[in-house]
Amino acid sequence: MQEAMIKRAKELLADGSVDRVIGWKRGEFAYDITPAVFTSAEELEHDFVFDDFTAANVSKYLVKETAKEGKILAFLKPCDTYSFNQLIKEHRIDREKVYVVGIPGGPKLDIEKIKAKGITGVLSVKNEDYTLKIETLYGEETMPFSEAVLDKCASCKSKKHVAYDELIGEDGDVLESNRFDMVEKLENMTAQERFDFWRGQLSKCIRCNACRNVCPACTCENCVFDNPKSGIDNKAAADSFEENMFHIIRAFHVAGRCTDCGECSRVCPQHIPLHLLNRKFIKDINELYGEYQAGADTTSRAPLTDYTKDDCEPSVVHERGVE
Amino acid sequence: MLKISKSRLGELFDAVAAKQTLYIPTDREPGAAEYKKYESGMELTKELNTVRSAKDFFFPQTENLADFRIDGKNIEVRDIREECGDFVVFGVRACDARSFTILDKVFLCEPVDSFYKNRRDHGTVVTMACSRPAETCFCQTFGIDPTSPEGDAACFDDGESIFFKANTEKGQAFIDSIASLLEEGDTAKLDEVNAKTKEIMAKLPLAKLSTGNFGGDKLNEYFNSDKWAELSEACLGCGTCTFVCPTCQCYDIRDFNTGHGIKRFRCWDSCMYSDFTKMAHGNPRLTQLERFRQRFMHKLVYFPANNNGEFGCVGCGRCLAKCPISMNIVKVMKALEEK
Questions:
Q1: When comparing pLDDT for A244 and B103, which is higher?
Q2: Is the pLDDT of residue A323 over 60?
Q3: Cα B84–B85–B90 angle (5° rounding)?
Q4: Which domains, ranges and CATH numbers included, belong to chain A?
Q5: Which of A209, A223, A232 to mutate to test the interface with B (most CBs of B within 10 A)?
Q6: pTM
Q7: Which among B153, B77, B60, B152 is positioned nearest to B113, based on CA atoms?
């Protein structure tokens, strides 16, 4: 797949269809991939990589990239195309300046899951028939591929590309995923259990803002949490209440716009399952307003920015709050 | 050398914790360790290092500096500093131990930061030699020997026992305080372990990384490098690297309105943030390129320029493991060196 992508990128650069290519660049190790913009065939041949670790969603970079002159080729996995569409819908990306090549999705691997098995000093990771052969400083190790899959891929919602100009490989389908299982578990807890769960998770937060900055739904030019004029800016939580509120406010702000790309949880250095906050909103929206998938298209009106007579009454919040 | 069997480590921790507060690195979840206040039964992690560094003990993420109470037209300023109790941080790795030397240069030079000094004076750092370095380790680039860590006292694990060695008077006092639990032990096996670790060190992917091309005299050469644009291109502008870094020392001071007064606190800041060093006239670094450049120039050029050639990095590898886009000081050094 990597070779086919490099070949196609070189063709599109050579015939002038695009000026730049956004994809992933190989790093020092087997897994430390960096999103990167390529402008020449030499760079592509030397550094371009597409493998089990290229999980990063490059859609959000297109906000910045399409503000520049010229056209850019973007390689988008199925999940990335949802973020892309949502950004189009929000007028954050100039569609005319992107040539989208749809590429197959994951499942991608999570190096932290490999390391959590005690496999350290990782030098290379090879997938042989869904068994990972891992060469380390301390000898060769093996583990099942399935146990190292990124959480966001383990509950993949769709193999279908919802936006593309051309595809490499075949398109897939929207999947029946298990992505609401954990949300249901949380819903079935008592209020106190649920509170304890979230306090436990959110107290790990170091306010690095990685979740916000990677989030394709967070494209405000100046976030209220960074803006001294907002009156609620804070670099660190002044107390534990604020620590929790940052994530809850953010979840409210992306409600109805979050495509469930899972990047927030993927990048969290403290492994906080932030996507569960967003999934709770998605599940609620599905139940209260009818099935809705943000980013599935670029034209429909989102339930929270639309009005129909069938909309639930605000009192539903109160009713559902009763234990 | 004095030692204790690993099976009796719990007894040792209990004895230390009976006299002063003890912190040890322990597993929070598989693959993620953190320092926690020791409670009986808590086990030492098998992870190489903690997600957050040990700098938190001396330079916490947030701390209150002063309280202002407002009563009509009077403002009362309250000095809230108080002497902290003695504490021990056990199991600090050689990289983090060196980070304290770096932080000392910042916080203990005139004017001395009394908040930091208070904790340094009362804290005893007990280090643990490494025997299983990771691929992301590059402490040897900065002249650190992980088989012989600094700190007040150093521990060494030969697989069966933990050996103790004092590096300072404070460290000696720590060992004296637990002497009744220790016995003389033969270090033959430990020497083997250390020799093996050194073999691994030589084979690490970053073993050849050198600071030779960096230092205080490289300002013009690197500040204007055309590499910064490409290096910073994908940077998210988050603070992960800064906040997991044991040597990042920048902070901001803010006032928190409590409704009947002000709490003045300081908190870690990140040069990656858009409001870093924002002043009345605005922000001196308007683009992510400039903010990104600041972080690496600080560690590789500005810090050695002001501190007799000492670099502002200890090679712990946390930023390599945690950056969401896997951009880090190693990639920066390698790119800048390419002419």
A1: B103
A2: no
A3: 115
A4: 1-108+155-178 (3.40.50), 111-148 (no CATH), 179-323 (no CATH)
A5: A209
A6: 0.94
A7: B60
